Amino acid sequence: MEPSIGLAGRLTRVLRRPRMRLPHLRPTRMTWVWLAGVGLAALVGLLLAAGIYPVLGVLIALVVGPVLLFRPRIGIWAVLAGTLAAAGVIELYFPALSVVKWGLALVAFALPLVAAFELFYGRAARKGAVYRPPQPFLRWGMMFFIVFLVSTVANWNGGMDALVGFKGYFQVWGVMLVFSYINYSEREAGRLMKFLLVLAAVQVPFVLHQFLVLVPMRTGIADAAKGIVAVDIVAGTFGGSMKGGGRSSSLALLDVMAIALVAAQWRVGAYSTKKALWYGVMCMLPIALCEAKIIILLLPVTFFLLFRDRVLKEPLRFLVGGLGTMALVGLIFVAYSALPGAKGQREGSVSDDMVDSVAYNFGKTGYGNAVLNRTSVYPFWIKEHAHSDEIWHALIGHGPGETNSTSTLMDPTLANKRYAGYAIGLTGISSLLWEVGLLGTMAILLMLLAAYRQAVLLEAKWRGTKQWPLIKTAEISVVLYAVNLLHNNYFVSDISFQTLLFLVLGYLVAITNIKRDSP
């Protein structure tokens, strides 16, 4: 038993114990990051509460921009996700935040510069990376840029018009160019095309909300008598306006591209029949609800290109398959008319709607309230340029942006001055003809043709691999995109529609740069 040491002994023992050390309180780098994050969150909350959206957009760009720029791979995915899954949603649901679209365009502009710097002076240069010459379709893209500059200078209408025209065409071209500087693995490249399925899945909840909530709201808009169709607002993440229309054809293009990917994967056995059908239903639902009639053309073209070799061997089976595809399209529209509230969302029956569609696409009826339609716009362009004093305009156009009749930043354009009410820029091809002439239009068409030929070569090179169905999807997608140039004019101004093309072309650049011996 320990003897008692008394009060003095206890005090001595306590004093001899090692002193307690306080923790090291000097702020670390992570501490500053957290403090900055808290302060930034508070500032963002105040800006949101005050509704000062432009300042908020600039603040986000200043914080996020450097991260995206100096990590090109992250920057690419940010632009792809932002333009395809967020830009249209912001336009429709949060129009005050439309400045975000400009931020995405600025990141896309800067990405090639940062990637080039990395190639020549950064870590990539130290690892022995080399410059690769551009693919043939990129060269045609450069040719289009030259024609664009010539047309801008020759038809000079001021710096603001030139800026708006440049932004309209080239807002995401940097996404395609940056792939020339970055080395992608097969797996990384494959994710680009598989992203189509992710996007297709994202469309479903937005399409359901737009069909069940927004479409009934639009049926009561007085402007419906002026040509607004209620169901046009069903465009998924591609955006639109409650008092205007939505980009349902872009939604249809995305979903048909995703269907091509699913069918290609099913053909090589990568997807089971059950899995392919599940994905197919997921992709067809938005198409059915948005009632995009362009699928009457897109679906047969997709299946023909995918099964072309079998078509040539068994033409009778292809005929049966083609009839089955058309029957499927018919069932889609019939199913749409049976949905609750469908009768209140259209002016007539499905058959009447189809007859009207044929009239304003191929007949003499103008599109909506316009004088011209998707067919008559081309003879009209020829008529207006079949004069000796218009040859120069026929070759290089009247200047970028001249078919734009809605921009408040530009001076009165050709579309709302000389040809008000005609809809001279109704399609992508007609817009190109009027703005950059025959030379610019041919440069774009040859760019698409070169991309298609490149995909065909890659298809043979990668046959029998996991990349084959992805390359086949890219090949089909280029053709589908070209078809859409005859249907809408989004190529000259819409950031989401343009990104769909440069996602595919970027994948072709990435997979071309991967070294693989031909089989």
Automatic annotation (TrEMBL):
Keyword set, alphabetical order: Membrane, Transmembrane, Transmembrane helix
Record field: transmembrane: 32-64, 76-96, 102-125, 137-156, 168-184, 196-215, 251-270, 276-306, 318-339, 419-452, 497-514
Top-rank lineage group of the source organism: Bacteria
Name of this protein: O-antigen ligase domain-containing protein
Organism: Duganella vulcania
